[in-house]
Amino acid sequence: MNKKWIIMASGPSMLEIDLSIVEQSGWRTMAVNNTHQLAPWADVMYAGDMAWWQQYGQATAGFQGEKWTRDEQAARLFRLHHVRRVDGTGLCRDRGCVNSGGNSGYQAVNLAWHFGARSIILLGFDMHRNTSGHWHGEHPRGMLSAPASHIAKWRHNFTALAADLARSRCKVINATPGSALDCFPRKTLEEALC
Q: Fewer Cβ atoms within 10 A, N terminus or C terminus of the chain?
């Protein structure tokens, strides 16, 4: 089991991060949603929603790592690994299940824990709408694109996850520049890797 994971979500701050440091870190890596485009070398990519896979799934054809989703239909259509989503709070410890948290980044953290992560660095978890919702701009019309009305709830949901991860002795550092997610200790990426 790999105990050290870096999870790269899709917040605008991803464009400020020197991803060569991540690639050369020796840590396992997971790209969330479109961030597989910035990190095609990632070990795993995770996208929870069928709408995302319908819009972007073909663009993941060249991705060499494992591809995961919580959507059963997407798993069948795109030949993905599947983890079941449940609507609990905090960390879902049931094998093969993740709590929703309302967003794919939350689910990716839960999935990394199932993969054996006991140290996690978060990147791209901006959790605000000071600029756009994502590093790649807004999703096309008809797709959820990190609306401000959801983000406060997502931040709140992370509070229970952070507490459960701490109880399970999983250390999480938020290395996202300018993040509004304050339930995890913060450091720069370089400090977090030390």
A: C
User: Assign residue 116 a region: left if phi > 0, alpha if psi is -120 to 50, beta otherwise?
Assistant: left
Question: Which SS3 state, helix, strand or coil, does residue 137 take?
Answer: coil
- Taking CA 25 as the corner, what is the angle to CA 23 and CA 173, rounded to the nearest 5 degrees? 105
- Per-residue pLDDT reduced to its tens digit, 30-77: 999 999 999 999 999 999 999 999 999 999 999 999 999 999 999 999
User: How many structural domains is the chain composed of?
Assistant: 1
Q: Which two three-digit tokens encode residue 170?
A: 């999983």
CA dist., res. 98 & res. 96, Å (int): 7
Question: Look-up: residue for tokens 């979500």?
Answer: 9
- Assess contact for 119 and 179: CB atoms under 8 A: no
Residue range(s) defining the domain that contains residue 106 = 4-193
DSSP notation for 31-85: EEGGGGGT-TT-SEEE---HHHHHHHGGGGTT--SEEEES-HHHHHHHT-EE-EE
The residue type of 173 is I
Q: Which of 68, 57, 5 is nearest to 34 (CA)?
A: 57
Instruction: Band the pLDDT of 88: cuts 50, 70, 90.
Output: confident
